[in-house]
Specification:
26% helix; 18% strand; Heat Shock Protein 90; alpha+beta; globular
């Protein structure tokens, strides 16, 4: 796995969550191994969500849905297309779903390499992408909390900008 490319995916997803969420709302980041043996990385927000009609197109280059076009949120519609390209190159997939209440949940699913003698995929190491990323640090990563494996979400409200 190319760690710098996967960092780019996480950074893009967190950056989008920050840009499209109201100030002071939590952003959740989690990682787990699914029952199918895949690594699932998820970023959840409490923004406007993604309308069902836009869910397939949102990963197309230069696509920005109506809510994004009408907002003051900067962007060109390339971030999610780049994410999808990287994820596909790693043999995975990326999905977007609604969160209960409001918001979106973007999930990346990657095949998890399992090493002999281990219960879960350990080829991903510690997944230090969130805590150590200088890019995320510039994007107020102190407000993004990582969900402990198998634990309840540990979320903190975003700082006011």
């Amino acid at each position: 796995m190319n760690a710098s490319q996967m960092e780019r995916v996480v950074v893009n997803l967190v950056d989008n969550a920050i840009k499209h969420s109201p100030s002071g709302t939590p952003i959740g980041v989690s990682a787990r191994i699914t029952c199918d043996g895949e690594l699932q990385l998820s970023v959840e927000d409490e923004g406007p969500g993604v309308p069902a009609a836009d869910r397939e197109r949102i990963f197309e280059p230069f696509f920005r849905n109506q809510t994004a076009r009408e907002s003051n949120v900067p962007g060109h519609g390339l971030g999610l297309a780049i994410c999808q390209s990287i994820v596909l190159a790693h043999g995975g997939r990326i999905e977007v779903n609604d969160r209960p209440g409001s918001g979106a949940c973007f999930s990346v699913f990657l095949p998890a390499p399992v090493q002999a003698g281990t219960r879960s995929g350990s080829g991903f190491g510690n997944i230090p992408l969130i805590q150590k990323s200088p890019i995320l640090h510039r994007h107020r990563a102190e407000a993004v909390r990582v969900r402990p494996p198998g634990g309840a979400p540990a979320k903190a409200p975003r700082s006011a900008r």
